[in-house]
Amino acid sequence: MFPSGKWKLTLDPKLSGRIRLSQGGDVDLSCLDIVSISTSKALLWHTVEIRARGRTDNLSGLSGDASEQLAADLHAFINTHLFDLIGTETDHLLDVDARLREITEGNRQYLAQADLGRAIASVPGSAAAALSHPLLDPQLMPAGLKASLPVSFAMLTDPCVRHAYNEAFVAAELRKFQPFFDDLDGRSLSDQQREACIRLEDNNLLVASAGSGKSATMVGKVAYVLEKQLYRPDEILLLAFNKSAADELRTRIARQLQVEESALKCRVETFHALGRGIIEDVEGRPPQLANWVDHPAGEARAIEEIIRSLVETDPEFARLWCDLLVVHAKADIPAEVFDTEADYRRYVSDRLRKGEATIGSLAGVIVKSLQEKKIVNWLWLHSVAFDYERQIAVEDDDGTVRHLHPDFYYTLTDTVHEHFALNADGTSPIADYVQHAESKRQAYHRKEIDFFETTSAQASSETLLSTLEAELARRAVPFERKSYAEITKAVEPVVIKHYHKLISTCIKHIRASHLTLDMLLERAGTLHDKERAKLYARVVWMITRGYSQRLEETNRIDFDSMIADAVRLVETGRYQSPYSLILVDEFQDISEPRANLIKALKQQKAFSKVFAVGDDWQSIYRFAGSDITIFTQFEANFGASWQGRLEQTYRCNQLIAETAARFVQRNPEQIAKSVRSTRPAIPRSIRVIPIDDERGRPDFAQACHCLLERLDHALGSIAAQWRNEPDAKLKILVLWRYNLLDPFGGIPPSFANIEVSGLSFHRAKGLEADYTVLLDVSEGDYGVPSRIEDDELLNLVIPRPETFAYAEERRLFYVALTRASRGVYLITNSRQPSRYIRELCEIAGEEVRYETIEGSALRQCPACLVGQMVGKRNRDGTVFHGCNQFPDCRHSEGVPAQSSAHLHRRA
Ligand SMILES: Nc1ncnc2c1ncn2[C@@H]1O[C@H](COP(=O)(O)OP(=O)(O)OP(=O)(O)O)[C@@H](O)[C@H]1O
């Protein structure tokens, strides 16, 4: 299972400052050439990565402890050699002393280890090389050696001395550069922004929060280092997540530096453009990218074509893929995994709801459980004729006639099939169920009805469908599998689309991490729905093979291969990086290949620095291959670092900022931050508008239009309070989880006082408005949180799966909540309000206002927090108030407590 095969590492002092790596042949790496040692976790094991000048080696197949130990041993071995060099090669130590004193005198600049290294690297001799080595660890230095060095060396050997120097430097610099920061990028920077501009350790991570001015800080940092002449403009690289972000950053930097954009010498790029540029630079022509790379829909189309050709040429694949679509469209998650029974019931009912990808309903049947659905879909797939819950009259011993409704009745052979909720030991989680099952068995037996049963235990042990098939085959029931065309016509397009998206993500991970089928199958065994996971593992493995073949045959590469090629060119030294300061925006969305490119650039150019800015609360691209742990475990990836915070938000008022922050931090895995707003809390600026759903789904589009009319009117009437220019309008963002909710058909209406735009939660990232309207904040597969996105299959390929339920959906909702400065409107299906609304109410209490679309206050249920108290009438005509979420919430007022449930039921 180890992709890179066996390896052996020899750390032997007799090798005179070299380590020997045997991996096929022997290679001796000089300790002086090694620039970094890091550990990372792949799917099943940990890896130690050794980066040396011109090469990178990965030692994989280690346990977590073993990788830590090996990294520590390597680190110690290299340092022992460095100390030997410093202790024995003393000729140039006085020169080093002079350089150190020169650089520290007059507190002219922030001093990172790299700056000291850069200063003394020009001194000849190995002692200076050892002292400027990036892995030099003063804590390991023998006390005797430390004491023998000149006083100035304390900057190198005593972290406290350098720290104290830098603290004093930052304080002085804040004073000195006050006028500079007072007017930067059109605003006065906060203290935290200023400090982030000044700090320049070897590795820097700025942990921000929504609306905290990350872009202003990046602009400020570039302006500051250029003002100080610490770098030339062409030594600075800024990496943005997408083209529009790169364009905006470029414009703002050029404006700040007062140069034409075309004359800007700092590079502001996307990863895509950077990778392409590196390859073009070395090879003299741009990389030959697959034709789907530049089109968002192109990749899905390519995957679709690969699937189609596999279906035509490989019967095994066709069988697996169809089973996946029809029988295993969604995971069967056991009840124990859900927080409450109500959650589980909702989950099951969502998956069974008519018209939602249920082959079962196409077969004319609405079933009661997910396992029954699996059976129905299997029967449909094999064209087996059956009746669901057909009524059968059975006479008991005493002559009374009972009517039974067996789950399945096979008309061709008059066979009855019951699917019992029984455990492997014959017990059942449902009271009296065992007796009930037994009485059914006996009744069929008495009436000599041909009968067989399946059980929940078989579903868990993956033998349900094989048992069903064997029982039917024994009775010579004919099977005829539906054609691929029939299947794709019957399966809802969203199911296919969902699989395409999942497959696309998995292909990236499988190729980037060289995952094998065995590894995927091993992971599949750890998921809840193992049968589905194993099936999917085989399917995605075959598609990945087809995908790689297609690239090879056409001599093309995809985006990740392009980045990997660029990394190779950097690591082997064929590309010489000009960048000494690399700034990375939206670092929370970084993927492994992109992180590798940053590391390669950083390691190649000696003494270069990385400044990454991001907000782990806004990491929303796990589907596109991002790995949040590169951010949360920054030091393990990049080495010792300074980590700063931006905790002041300039956007949301304090109520929204604080509520959203507490909401997202309910996931303990998110980094803890305190968020303060520069805008005071606007009371009740979070509003919930429940919409009734009398005829099927509530009409969110109509509700949205009514609300916009109302806002336009209301804001127009107080225009004097906010209008600063005659034509000014307030900005309203209408946001939705899925594009099918777009109430404007792509063209938002225009109003006198408000400027409306609409887009998905994902696309709203980075945008801001005065008010936001969030549509369909309801429970459901396509609701908030979206259940469909949280497919456990993603955990087959993600190195460190998240354990907190709907972690990414929570962050996405946080992004949506934090776009507004003045107010957020949450429009919800009154029958299925999102659990997230309840959480906001728990956090903000009375500050969340329930109202009608016209703006009249509604009375929120104090018990469940998501329902409203509505007037109800008893049979005797007396009136009481009860929660409209009955029976999920039984709260009522105005009736004696003991009889309230009873009255509700009648009401
Ligand atoms: N020092 C400052 N003083 C006043 N306003 C500021 C300051 N810094 C940033 N802002 C403003 O705060 C708002 C948010 O800034 P920006 O868009 O850079 O934040 P962000 O951290 O990138 O937000 P998000 O991550 O939510 O997209 C902008 O309107 C910006 O002009």
- Under CATH at level 1, the class of one domain stands as Alpha Beta
Which small compounds were modeled alongside the protein?
A: adenosine-5'-triphosphate
Continuous helix count: 34
Strand percentage, roughly? Answer: 15-25%
Q: From the alpha-carbon coordinates, what is the Rg to the nearest angstrom?
A: 32 Å
Q: What is the 3D form? A: globular
CATH fourth-tier homologous superfamily of one domain: P-loop containing nucleotide triphosphate hydrolases
- The CATH architecture of one domain can be given as 3-Layer(aba) Sandwich
> Could you tell me the number of beta strands?
29
Whole-number mean pLDDT? 89
C-alpha termini separation: 63 Å
CATH topology of one domain: Rossmann fold
Order of neighbouring strands in the sheet with most strands: 9-8-16-17-7-18
Class derived from helix and strand content: alpha/beta
User: What share of the residues lie within helices?
Assistant: 40-55%
Sheet of most strands? 6 strands, parallel
Low-confidence stretches: 896-907
Pfam family, one: UvrD-helicase
Keywords: ATP-binding, Helicase, Hydrolase, Isomerase, Nucleotide-binding
Enzyme class: isomerase
Protein name: DNA 3'-5' helicase
